[in-house]
């Protein structure tokens, strides 16, 4: 490793293109990322938030030029809201159409892009960069809240004169989600204050305004929770992905060396399976806070259930739980958008809910062109008040060492991706039944 670093330092070209993220310690990097994510607490307007967010992001990436465009209400054009490093003559009434230039292309495909050299990039053959740019490299990411486009952030003119890296692209993609969430929260808060002012002066509309105020307060709380999940997920991804990758690599190397000892191979396969579950958990957390592109792979629902059961088999065995499976004769394959993760969370809740010797029943069916997956337990059940809150992030009735309140939130987000539904039936001391209803597309 030390030898590789020395070789990189010998090359001037490589040094110029090196990510600025490698120039600060991990602790300092996380501190600066956290500062950007929490900017919403120190601003009073959406415009101020965009300005401070852009300035802080440019400083983190070592960029001398940046801009943030916001999508117009017509959903067809993006208007420049804030810019740094640009002449005032360039900023006046700057509007980008969907698909126009780098900003328009990113808004259209809703995915981040890094451009090494705009003059040689075939994706932008008809695009001519302004003469005021000092470098030919750009990095651009959409501002997304779930699958809804809010705007686009664009960075250019690296101080080092080098190009932006893929590592920087991934970090900007994460930060852009946080900026979008913060922007939405500030907008909601401004609207909330406006409703409060109107409610004081218009007494005849007090009832309606009060309801709207409460609804907006709930939205603000929900956005804050989602922003917290995003910050947590980003930290987990950066902290765990590299170590997990190393452990998985060495586990695979050990498996390649084991030939005759079937017992040792079995142990290693269990380790590998557990590590893959950890990777999926990290991905699920990330899916809770940002837009995830659709998968093209399909999975059989029964296969997803069996995989989820495999992950929970030790808990089922130790609690002596009676497991009953009632599978439909045939179910069509559906897109793999996190079905196993959803079922795993339902199973984990069912296992925690039942006493030793309890029962868990899993049933599948095909009804009205929808796949139904039912997980039923005879555990302690839930009150109506608990049922009302179970899908909120970080809400839990479990002890702190048994859960953090994200399991059913993840199930809910996965069902939204499927355009599906979750039905819940429960009563105290009568168990609970969760039914996933997934349209077959």
How would you portray this structure in words?
Helix 4 (46-61) packs antiparallel against helix 7 (166-201) and helix 8 packs antiparallel against helix 9. The chain has 3 domains: 17-233, GAF domain (Beta-Lactamase); 242-281; 298-439, Heat Shock Protein 90, CATH 3.30.565.10. The two termini are 48 Å apart. The protein has a 6-stranded antiparallel sheet with strand order 3-2-1-6-5-4, sandwiched between helices. Strands 8-10-11-13-12 form a 5-stranded mixed sheet. Strands 7-9 form a two-stranded antiparallel sheet. It is built from 13 helices and 13 strands. Strand 10 (359-367) and strand 11 (370-377) form a beta hairpin. It is of the alpha+beta class. It has helices at residues 2-10, 12-17, 26-37, 46-61, 88-91, 101-109, 166-201, 206-257, 262-287, 301-318, 339-353, 384-389, 407-417; strands at residues 63-71, 77-84, 95-97, 113-115, 138-145, 148-158, 298-299, 322-326, 334-335, 359-367, 370-377, 421-426, 432-439.
CATH H-tier superfamily of the largest domain: GAF domain
Structural class of the helices, strands and pairings? alpha+beta
Q: Biggest sheet: strands side by side, in what order?
A: 3-2-1-6-5-4
CATH architecture of the largest domain: 2-Layer Sandwich
Roughly how much helix do the residues carry, as a percent range? 40-55%
Query: Number of DSSP helices?
Result: 13
What is the CATH topology assignment of the largest domain? Beta-Lactamase
SSE pattern: HHHHEEHEHEEEHHHEHEEHEEHHEE
**Describe the biggest sheet?**
6 strands, antiparallel
For the record, give the distance between the C-alpha atoms at the N and C termini, rounded to a whole number. Answer: 48 Å
What proportion of the residues form beta strands (DSSP E)?
A: 15-25%
Low-confidence spans: pLDDT under 50, at least 5 residues? 1-17
Tally of separate domains: 3
The total of beta strands comes to 13
Top-tier CATH class of the largest domain: Alpha Beta
Radius of gyration: 25 Å
The mean pLDDT is 80
What general outline do the C-alpha atoms trace?
Answer: globular
């Amino acid at each position: 490793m030390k030898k590789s670093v020395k070789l990189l330092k010998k090359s001037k070209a490589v040094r110029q293109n090196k990510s600025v993220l490698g120039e600060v310690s991990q602790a300092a990097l996380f501190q600066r990322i956290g500062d950007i994510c929490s900017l919403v607490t120190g601003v009073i307007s959406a415009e101020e938030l965009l300005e401070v967010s852009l300035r802080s992001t440019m400083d983190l990436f070592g960029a001398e030029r940046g801009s943030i465009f916001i999508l117009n209400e017509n959903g067809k054009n993006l208007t420049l809201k804030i810019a740094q490093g640009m002449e005032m003559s360039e900023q006046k009434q700057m509007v980008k159409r969907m698909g126009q230039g780098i900003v328009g292309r990113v808004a259209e495909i809703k995915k981040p892009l890094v451009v090494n050299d705009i003059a040689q990039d075939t994706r932008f053959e008809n695009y001519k960069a302004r003469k005021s740019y000092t470098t030919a490299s750009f990095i651009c990411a959409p501002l997304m809240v779930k699958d809804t486009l809010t705007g686009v952030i664009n960075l250019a003119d690296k101080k080092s004169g080098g190009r932006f890296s893929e590592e920087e692209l991934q970090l900007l993609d994460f930060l852009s989600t946080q900026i979008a969430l913060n922007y939405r929260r500030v907008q909601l808060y401004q609207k909330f204050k406006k409703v409060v002012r109107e409610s004081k002066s218009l007494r005849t509309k007090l009832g309606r305004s009060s309801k709207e105020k409460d609804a907006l307060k709930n939205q603000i709380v929900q956005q804050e929770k989602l922003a917290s999940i995003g910050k947590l997920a980003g930290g987990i991804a950066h902290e765990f992905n590299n170590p997990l990758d190393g452990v998985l690599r060495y586990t695979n190397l050990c498996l390649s060396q084991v030939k005759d000892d079937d017992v040792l191979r079995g142990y290693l396969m269990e380790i590998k399976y557990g590590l893959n579950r950890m990777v999926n958990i990290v991905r699920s957390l990330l899916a809770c806070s940002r837009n995830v592109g659709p998968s093209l792979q399909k999975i059989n629902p029964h296969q997803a259930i069996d995989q989820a059961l495999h992950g929970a088999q030790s808990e089922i065995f130790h609690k002596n739980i009676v497991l009953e499976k009632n599978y439909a004769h045939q179910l069509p394959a559906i897109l793999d958008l996190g079905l196993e993760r959803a079922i795993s969370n339902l199973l984990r809740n069912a296992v925690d809910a039942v006493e030793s010797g309890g029962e868990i029943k899993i049933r599948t069916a095909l009804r009205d062109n929808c796949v139904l997956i039912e997980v039923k337990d005879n555990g302690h059940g839930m009150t109506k008040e608990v049922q009302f809150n179970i899908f909120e992030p970080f809400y839990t009735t479990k002890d702190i060492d048994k859960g953090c309140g994200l399991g059913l939130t993840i199930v809910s987000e996965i069902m939204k991706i499927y355009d599906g539904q979750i039905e819940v039936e429960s009563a105290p001391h009568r168990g609970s039944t969760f039914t996933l209803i997934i349209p077959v597309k």
